[in-house]
Amino acid sequence: MTTDKTFLFNDKTTKHLEEIAKFKQKTQTETLQELIEDEYKKIRIKKKLEALDKLVGCLTGKIGDIDLNQIRIERAIHRVKYKD
C-alpha cells in the first residue's frame, strides 16, 4: 500500500536528495524510503536496548534502595538462629 504525501524541502536539501538518488541510481522516493527505514530501524533497536536495560535492572534483585537478596539472606539467618 502506498500513501501520497507532499513534503517541502529547502533548496539545499533538495539538491542533496537529487545527488544521493542519482548516486544510488534510484528514484528520490526510493531513496527517501530507504533513509527513513534505516533511521526507523536504529530507533527500534535503541528502544529495544533501553527496554532490555530496564529488564536487566529488574533482575539484579534491587528495587530502589531495597536489596531483595540481602533480605533473603537475613531471613535465612533468622530462621537458622531461632530454629533451635
List the helices and strands and how they pair.
Blueprint: H1 11-24, H2 28-58, E1 62-63, E2 66-67, H3 68-83
Antiparallel strand pairs: 1-2
Helix pairs in contact: 1-2
Key structural traits:
84 residues, mainly alpha, 3 helices, rod-shaped, two-stranded antiparallel ribbon
What is the succession of H and E elements?
A: HHEEH
Between the first and last Cα atoms, what is the distance in angstroms? 74 Å
Tell me about the biggest sheet? 2 strands, antiparallel
Secondary structural class: mainly alpha
- Coarse shape: rod-shaped
Q: Beta fraction of the residues?
A: under 5%
**Radius of gyration (Å):** 27 Å
Contiguous runs where pLDDT drops below 50 for at least 5 residues? none
**Number of DSSP E strands:** 2
Number of domains: 1
Number of helices: 3
As laid out across the biggest beta sheet, the strand order is 1-2
Mean pLDDT, as a whole number? 86
Helix content: over 70%
Summarize the structure.
The chain is mostly helical and 84 residues long. It has helices at residues 11-24, 28-58, 68-83, and strands at residues 62-63, 66-67. The chain has one domain.
